[in-house]
Amino acid sequence: MFGSNFSRRLAQVAVLLLFVAASTSGHAALQNPSSAFSPAWQRPPASATPLAPAAPTRADILRGAYGPYRVNNDLLSYHLDIRVDPEQQSISGKNSIRFKMLADGTRIQLDLHPALNVDKILFGATTLQYVRDSGAVFVDFPETLHAGQEYTIDFYYSGHPLQTARFGGFTFGKDPAGHPWIYTACEDIGASVWWPNKDQWRDEVENMQISVAIPNGLVDVSNGKFVGKTDLGDGYTRWEWLVQYPINNYDVSLNIGNYVHFSDQLGDLPLDFYVLPEDLDKAKKQFVQAKGMIEAYQHYFGEYPFQKDGYKLVEVPYSGMEHQSAVTYGNHFTNGYLGRDWTGVGVSPKFDFIIIHESGHEWFGNSVSAADRSDMWIHEGWTTYLEVLYVEYTFGHEDAIKYVNGYKSKVQNREPIIAERGIAATPPQDMYFKGALLLNTLRSVMNDDARWWALIHDFYQHFKYQNIMTEDVVQYFNQQTAMNLTPVFDQYLHHTAIPTLELRFNEADGTVDYRWQADEPDFAMPIRVGKKTDWQIIQPTTYWQTLKTPLQKNEFDVATDLYFVNVSKQ
Ligand SMILES: [Zn+2]
Questions:
Q1: Which among 265, 251, 190, 198 has a CA at the least distance from the CA of 222?
Q2: How confident is the model at residue 249 (pLDDT cuts 50, 70, 90)?
Q3: 379 CA from centroid of ligand 1 (Å)
Q4: What is the pTM (predicted TM-score) of this model?
């Protein structure tokens, strides 16, 4: 899939590098063109990331850092208004960006992938100057913008967006019947791969209009509420969508195809489904799972976060993505994940993994969002745990414990879950599975399900529609539980190893010595031990303590399905 585009891309890279080098001269803050010679899209995909990650590129730093020309403003709204030409494989149009200045200044940073042209940037009738530096576009104003004031600029652009990165970037494809099938998926490379925006995670617009002109006969499904369509009289129709909530840049999406539509309702919540005509019957059967999924998550966390925008599932040829209120779906209308028993313990075949996982992101990822890609476990660890909650709600506790423990075999423990901040780094896959196992462990640490359900419900409600970091999670948990869970979070998130419960038996005395072996010197976590039918809770720390037990070494169990830990018996 990548091969066919590779030489075209190399040629583009060469041209762009000349441009980057030329355009950055004379700006002290931007000098260091040599580091621009390894753009992110030349690097291998995430799955091939070596243990010691390569030094961040200049592009990574410009995209990942919340630099001075980002911190000086606060996004209010976008109106993305574009035309997509399937024949030319091109896009053109503008994004009207409304923002409030937080400090006086004459420059802001926006982002647009170097493969795309900046046509002009207008501030009212004034054409603004700008400087491109890899993916960044520094926009300069002729006079000072004042703190507290709101401003709008119109950023015109055009070109051939790249099909790239793990999820495809912007893809001009065809459906099996030969109709255009065009879609975006850009969480890793960033939304600026196809449209100009402030491409970072910390700041989100409050709302967004998406206007997409496409050839008559095709359908565009984007995020938010469908507002209407207008025949432009030139063979194109403009589709209008309105997002009435904060939205991550990477969630903003186009799905253009020969879609048919059917709808349903869950209480007041409109459910809309868009699939290829040949898949309509299968979809009508498979997508009934959406209702049970929403009911399960509403049970644990409260109302679906994007009520006014509705919930949509949109068929795509890749596996799926959590695009806000327009979740994309490519799981072949079968249960499990791409036909497999995903956690290998017989539970996954009972439900459609993509519907359950990607829609879980509406609560964690889209509503509660991480403020830096480094802390993406807030999206993926939580959403993987939401799968477990869905299983518990739908199939019972026993299946849920089986399901979450099925994830243990996928944990690698090679890199910490939290990646380096400020460089648009991708955390390791452990953020999903180990993240969910950490949350299952914390439930056991609480040892009071009623309090656990209240805690995760209130945690979600407290942080919904916000962008947070791990420190916010830990602080909230500590406050609400009156426990010091910091060393527990730190051990699982900032170190590679999970804690080991060391047990030394002295059968002659009828005692066992116990302690945690962990990287965090203050690591302390209660755990259930002894007899499976009658657990006893001990409070190990990293210092040896002694417990009297009538149990022999081989009879003494540890509840390792409730806590993600190693056990060493001597
Ligand atoms: Zn996910």
A1: 251
A2: very high
A3: 7
A4: 0.90
